[in-house]
Design goal:
With about 230 residues, the protein is an alpha/beta fold. The chain folds into 2 domains: about 5-15 and about 65-105 and about 150-230, Rossmann fold (3-Layer(aba) Sandwich), CATH 3.40.50; about 20-60 and about 110-145, SIR2/SIRT2 'Small Domain' (2-Layer Sandwich). It is built from 9 helices and 9 strands. It has helices spanning about 10-15, 35, 40-45, 45-60, 65-80, 95, 155-165, 185-190, 215-230, and strands at about 5-10, 85, 105, 105-115, 120, 140-145, 165-170, 195-200, 210-215. α7 runs parallel beside α8. The protein is elongated, with a radius of gyration of 18 Å.
Length: about 230
Protein backbone atom coordinates (compact mmCIF):
# COMPACT_ATOMS: atom_id res chain seq x y z
CA UNK A 1 0.00 0.00 0.00
CA UNK A 2 1.30 3.44 -0.92
CA UNK A 3 2.34 5.72 1.93
CA UNK A 4 1.55 9.43 1.76
CA UNK A 5 3.64 11.86 3.81
CA UNK A 6 2.22 15.36 4.19
CA UNK A 7 4.09 18.38 5.54
CA UNK A 8 1.92 21.28 6.68
CA UNK A 9 2.90 24.82 7.57
CA UNK A 10 1.31 28.06 8.69
CA UNK A 11 -0.63 28.46 5.47
CA UNK A 12 -3.02 25.62 6.33
CA UNK A 13 -4.00 27.30 9.61
CA UNK A 14 -4.13 30.87 8.28
CA UNK A 15 -7.71 30.38 7.09
CA UNK A 16 -8.64 29.40 10.64
CA UNK A 17 -7.51 32.84 11.79
CA UNK A 18 -4.01 31.99 13.00
CA UNK A 19 -1.38 34.41 11.79
CA UNK A 20 1.85 33.60 10.00
CA UNK A 21 5.26 35.25 10.37
CA UNK A 22 4.41 37.57 7.49
CA UNK A 23 0.99 38.79 8.58
CA UNK A 24 0.87 42.51 9.30
CA UNK A 25 -0.86 43.53 12.52
CA UNK A 26 -0.74 40.01 14.01
CA UNK A 27 1.26 38.74 16.98
CA UNK A 28 4.42 37.96 15.03
CA UNK A 29 4.59 41.41 13.46
CA UNK A 30 4.62 43.02 16.91
CA UNK A 31 7.81 41.27 18.09
CA UNK A 32 11.23 40.39 16.78
CA UNK A 33 11.75 36.66 16.31
CA UNK A 34 14.99 36.97 18.28
CA UNK A 35 13.03 38.22 21.29
CA UNK A 36 10.23 35.65 21.42
CA UNK A 37 11.41 32.56 19.53
CA UNK A 38 14.94 31.85 20.73
CA UNK A 39 16.41 30.46 23.98
CA UNK A 40 18.39 33.68 24.29
CA UNK A 41 15.22 35.76 24.10
CA UNK A 42 13.64 33.67 26.85
CA UNK A 43 16.72 34.12 29.04
CA UNK A 44 16.65 37.91 28.51
CA UNK A 45 12.96 38.50 29.08
CA UNK A 46 10.95 35.45 30.17
CA UNK A 47 7.89 37.59 30.95
CA UNK A 48 7.75 38.83 27.36
CA UNK A 49 8.08 35.29 25.98
CA UNK A 50 5.53 33.76 28.34
CA UNK A 51 3.08 36.56 27.55
CA UNK A 52 3.59 36.09 23.82
CA UNK A 53 2.89 32.35 23.96
CA UNK A 54 -0.01 32.80 26.37
CA UNK A 55 -1.61 35.02 23.72
CA UNK A 56 -0.87 32.48 20.99
CA UNK A 57 -2.26 29.66 23.16
CA UNK A 58 -5.54 31.52 23.72
CA UNK A 59 -5.78 32.38 20.02
CA UNK A 60 -5.17 28.76 18.99
CA UNK A 61 -7.67 27.42 21.52
CA UNK A 62 -10.39 29.59 19.98
CA UNK A 63 -9.60 28.58 16.39
CA UNK A 64 -11.53 25.94 14.48
CA UNK A 65 -10.24 23.48 11.87
CA UNK A 66 -11.02 24.48 8.31
CA UNK A 67 -11.88 22.35 5.24
CA UNK A 68 -8.18 21.69 4.56
CA UNK A 69 -7.66 20.08 7.97
CA UNK A 70 -10.86 18.10 7.58
CA UNK A 71 -9.88 16.91 4.10
CA UNK A 72 -6.60 15.49 5.39
CA UNK A 73 -8.50 13.61 8.08
CA UNK A 74 -10.76 12.21 5.37
CA UNK A 75 -7.68 11.10 3.45
CA UNK A 76 -6.27 9.37 6.56
CA UNK A 77 -9.53 7.51 7.07
CA UNK A 78 -10.07 6.41 3.47
CA UNK A 79 -6.64 5.90 1.90
CA UNK A 80 -5.69 2.20 1.78
CA UNK A 81 -2.13 2.93 2.92
CA UNK A 82 -0.63 5.05 5.67
CA UNK A 83 -1.12 8.82 5.64
CA UNK A 84 1.45 10.54 7.85
CA UNK A 85 0.94 14.20 8.78
CA UNK A 86 4.05 16.13 9.80
CA UNK A 87 3.38 19.71 10.84
CA UNK A 88 5.50 22.76 11.52
CA UNK A 89 2.50 24.28 13.28
CA UNK A 90 2.22 24.43 17.06
CA UNK A 91 -1.57 24.57 17.07
CA UNK A 92 -3.75 21.46 17.45
CA UNK A 93 -6.07 22.06 14.51
CA UNK A 94 -5.17 18.80 12.79
CA UNK A 95 -6.21 16.88 15.89
CA UNK A 96 -9.31 19.05 16.32
CA UNK A 97 -10.23 18.10 12.77
CA UNK A 98 -9.94 14.40 13.62
CA UNK A 99 -6.41 13.58 12.40
CA UNK A 100 -4.44 10.89 14.24
CA UNK A 101 -0.78 10.53 15.20
CA UNK A 102 0.30 13.97 13.97
CA UNK A 103 4.04 14.58 14.24
CA UNK A 104 4.57 18.10 15.62
CA UNK A 105 8.16 18.78 14.63
CA UNK A 106 8.11 22.25 16.25
CA UNK A 107 6.29 21.23 19.43
CA UNK A 108 2.88 22.38 20.56
CA UNK A 109 1.32 25.27 22.43
CA UNK A 110 -0.61 22.71 24.47
CA UNK A 111 2.61 21.51 26.08
CA UNK A 112 4.99 22.79 28.76
CA UNK A 113 8.67 21.91 29.00
CA UNK A 114 11.14 22.11 31.86
CA UNK A 115 14.30 23.85 30.68
CA UNK A 116 16.21 22.13 33.50
CA UNK A 117 15.25 18.44 33.18
CA UNK A 118 13.29 18.24 29.87
CA UNK A 119 10.14 16.94 31.59
CA UNK A 120 6.98 17.64 29.59
CA UNK A 121 3.41 18.15 30.78
CA UNK A 122 0.15 19.73 29.65
CA UNK A 123 0.44 23.51 29.71
CA UNK A 124 -2.10 25.59 31.62
CA UNK A 125 -3.98 28.24 29.61
CA UNK A 126 -1.52 30.81 30.96
CA UNK A 127 2.05 30.06 31.99
CA UNK A 128 3.84 32.37 34.40
CA UNK A 129 7.48 33.29 34.85
CA UNK A 130 9.24 30.97 37.28
CA UNK A 131 6.55 28.30 37.10
CA UNK A 132 7.81 25.09 38.73
CA UNK A 133 8.38 21.81 36.98
CA UNK A 134 6.17 19.05 38.46
CA UNK A 135 9.03 16.56 38.12
CA UNK A 136 12.09 18.37 39.50
CA UNK A 137 10.53 21.52 41.05
CA UNK A 138 12.93 23.80 39.17
CA UNK A 139 11.35 27.20 38.33
CA UNK A 140 12.15 26.58 34.68
CA UNK A 141 8.84 26.01 32.88
CA UNK A 142 8.70 27.21 29.28
CA UNK A 143 6.44 26.54 26.29
CA UNK A 144 7.14 23.19 24.64
CA UNK A 145 7.82 24.76 21.27
CA UNK A 146 10.99 24.47 19.21
CA UNK A 147 12.72 27.81 18.94
CA UNK A 148 15.24 28.93 16.35
CA UNK A 149 18.57 27.26 17.06
CA UNK A 150 16.93 24.18 18.61
CA UNK A 151 16.57 20.73 17.07
CA UNK A 152 13.07 19.90 15.77
CA UNK A 153 11.30 16.90 17.25
CA UNK A 154 10.73 13.44 15.69
CA UNK A 155 13.40 13.89 13.00
CA UNK A 156 14.51 10.24 12.85
CA UNK A 157 10.89 9.08 12.55
CA UNK A 158 10.14 11.72 9.89
CA UNK A 159 13.12 10.70 7.75
CA UNK A 160 12.07 7.06 8.03
CA UNK A 161 8.62 7.98 6.71
CA UNK A 162 10.09 10.09 3.89
CA UNK A 163 12.22 7.16 2.77
CA UNK A 164 9.05 5.06 2.44
CA UNK A 165 6.78 7.67 0.84
CA UNK A 166 5.12 7.07 -2.50
CA UNK A 167 3.63 10.58 -2.41
CA UNK A 168 5.01 13.63 -0.61
CA UNK A 169 2.86 16.75 -0.29
CA UNK A 170 3.81 20.12 1.16
CA UNK A 171 0.88 22.33 2.15
CA UNK A 172 1.08 25.97 3.18
CA UNK A 173 4.83 26.17 3.76
CA UNK A 174 7.27 28.91 2.80
CA UNK A 175 10.11 26.60 1.80
CA UNK A 176 12.48 28.76 3.82
CA UNK A 177 12.82 26.88 7.11
CA UNK A 178 15.18 23.92 7.32
CA UNK A 179 15.24 21.00 7.75
CA UNK A 180 11.61 20.88 6.54
CA UNK A 181 12.48 22.72 3.31
CA UNK A 182 14.66 19.77 2.31
CA UNK A 183 12.00 17.09 2.86
CA UNK A 184 10.98 17.25 -0.79
CA UNK A 185 14.50 16.20 -1.81
CA UNK A 186 14.55 13.34 0.69
CA UNK A 187 11.22 12.06 -0.59
CA UNK A 188 12.06 12.53 -4.28
CA UNK A 189 15.37 10.72 -3.87
CA UNK A 190 13.40 7.80 -2.43
CA UNK A 191 11.15 7.76 -5.49
CA UNK A 192 8.12 9.67 -4.21
CA UNK A 193 5.88 11.76 -6.40
CA UNK A 194 5.92 15.32 -5.04
CA UNK A 195 3.29 18.05 -4.94
CA UNK A 196 3.14 21.52 -3.38
CA UNK A 197 -0.19 23.12 -2.46
CA UNK A 198 0.25 26.75 -1.56
CA UNK A 199 -1.32 30.19 -1.86
CA UNK A 200 1.71 31.21 -3.93
CA UNK A 201 4.84 29.32 -4.99
CA UNK A 202 7.23 28.66 -2.13
CA UNK A 203 10.96 29.27 -2.34
CA UNK A 204 11.33 25.56 -3.13
CA UNK A 205 8.46 25.22 -5.60
CA UNK A 206 10.78 24.30 -8.49
CA UNK A 207 11.73 21.11 -6.63
CA UNK A 208 8.19 19.72 -6.85
CA UNK A 209 6.77 17.79 -9.78
CA UNK A 210 3.39 19.46 -9.37
CA UNK A 211 2.45 22.85 -7.88
CA UNK A 212 -1.20 23.65 -7.09
CA UNK A 213 -1.93 27.26 -6.17
CA UNK A 214 -4.86 28.67 -4.22
CA UNK A 215 -6.31 28.81 -0.71
CA UNK A 216 -5.72 25.57 1.21
CA UNK A 217 -9.40 25.32 2.10
CA UNK A 218 -10.12 24.95 -1.62
CA UNK A 219 -7.09 23.18 -3.07
CA UNK A 220 -6.61 20.53 -0.40
CA UNK A 221 -10.17 19.09 -0.52
CA UNK A 222 -9.94 18.93 -4.35
CA UNK A 223 -6.55 17.21 -4.18
CA UNK A 224 -7.88 14.68 -1.66
CA UNK A 225 -10.91 14.04 -3.85
CA UNK A 226 -8.62 13.38 -6.81
CA UNK A 227 -6.44 10.96 -4.83
CA UNK A 228 -9.38 9.01 -3.45
CA UNK A 229 -10.99 8.93 -6.86
CA UNK A 230 -7.89 7.25 -8.29
CA UNK A 231 -8.14 4.22 -6.00
Amino acid sequence: MEKIVILTGAGISAESGLGTFRDEGRLWSQHRIEDVATPEGFARDPALVQGFYNARRIQAANAQPNPAHQALTRLQRNWPGDVVIVTQNVDSLHEAGGAKNVLHMHGTLAGALCAACDHRWVAPPEMSVGESCPACAAPSARPDVVWFGEMPYHMETIYDHLSEAAIFASIGTSGQVYPAAAFVHEAANAGARTVELNLEPSDGASSFETVILGPASETVPRWVDDLLGQQ
